[in-house]
Amino acid sequence: MPVRRGLQGEVLARLALVMLVATGMLGAVLVRTHEAHVAELRRLAARALWDEARTPLGLLPPASDAARWWTRRAGGPWVPRGSAGGEGPDRAGAALAEEALRRREALLGAGPAWQPIRFAAPLPDGSVALAWFPPAVPAALVLALLLGGVAVFTALGATLMRRAVIAPLERMARAARGLADGAFEERVPVEGVRETAELAAAWNEMTAALESRTGALEKAVRDLRASNESLREARAGLDRAARLAAVGRLAAGVAHEVGNPMGAVLAFLDLARRAPELSEATRATIERAAGQGERVRGILRQLLDYSRPPKSRAVATPLPRLCEEVAALVRAQRRYQGIEIRVVEEPGAPPALADPGVVSQILLNLLLNAADALCGAATPAPRIELRVRPAALRLRPGEGPAPAQARREPEAVACEVIDNGPGVAAEDREQIFDPFFTTKPVGEGTGLGLANALRFAEECGGRLELAPGAGEPGAVFALTLPVPAPAAGAGAARREG
Length: 497
Fold this sequence. Notes:
Number of helices: 9
Largest sheet: 5 strands, antiparallel
Strand order of the largest sheet: 2-1-5-4-3
Structural class: alpha+beta
CATH topology of the largest domain: Heat Shock Protein 90
Shape: rod-shaped
Helix content: 40-55%
Oligomer: single chain
């Protein structure tokens, strides 16, 4: 962007030009007036100068103390008269003297006020007398007055202009830069002349309107984001419901078609295992086959649990106690003895309104998954933390990860299962709760554990979710459950207190 001259410099340059032109015009008028006065002076002073020129001995008093006189005979040198000094007249004076001799009459030469006045007169003896008078006003004084007038006029214009125009415009420029940075609360003082005051008032009105519209736009964006999040959750719920319906139909068919034959196979294997004539190797083979059959029966049972969730009985359930019981079950297993498992209860965590058996099953599934992830990745210093804290069952627009802190009464309680293992890969986060999806090796998982846990949590009126990754190792699964409604008497007592 080219560098442009500012308003103050532009206007001052134009004012200086106008002042220079005006002063020049005034000087021209004064010069014309001076010339008219000189013409009148010729008629009035001609006799006095003529008498002085004809009186060589100075019998008459001089017409002016500053005058310098010279005389000259034809072809001779200039002879000073009185205090004229040794130097002769200037070229213009000598020319005027020659013209007076030629015309045989007295001549008066006068120019502008800053030029000298010259008088030449022929004498009866054939010589010529020349007088030189200094200028009425020195040229340096005229130039100084001209430049001084321009300077004073420009300085006065600069002061008035800065106070009336430049300073308000600079304040508006600062306000505009602040507005670009988001400082909508800044206002411009309404002062100065009428035009700048009207401009400042209009600027303030525009800023207020922009602030109001920006606030409304930000609120609309927040509402739109909340609506989009709700739609996304609803769509995910519909997709999950469709998958659940498909798995439910599949589970019912598998249980009907495979369950009864598998029960018969297991019964026959049990009878065969009891035969006394079998060898130990044959009996061991039959027992392994029965174990695999029991594994199939377990998968069928999980399918039935997934398709027909158990009917729960919601009671006030303290989550810290359930967490300690589930942690004790996991600690007792030799495979997980090297894992540190601890339960942390934050202040103000209320009991959950849920079935203790169902909640225990959910927590056990989450804890076993975390322990298997730590063992599979050989995590150094493995640890699992079960953190119980107050929470919100439904997040409001703009709330953060701990929304219940700003609420007077928490409406839910959350239990977070936090481990320092490898975490969940980004490409697996969207399908971690899908039926039959598992990251475990083949033969170690059916992929129904988290799907069942999610279904049980929703049956209890809560939710189960994988917390977003925060750049730290490990995974965080949060089980959020509702809390019992406060009794009317207790609420009244709290209000009175």
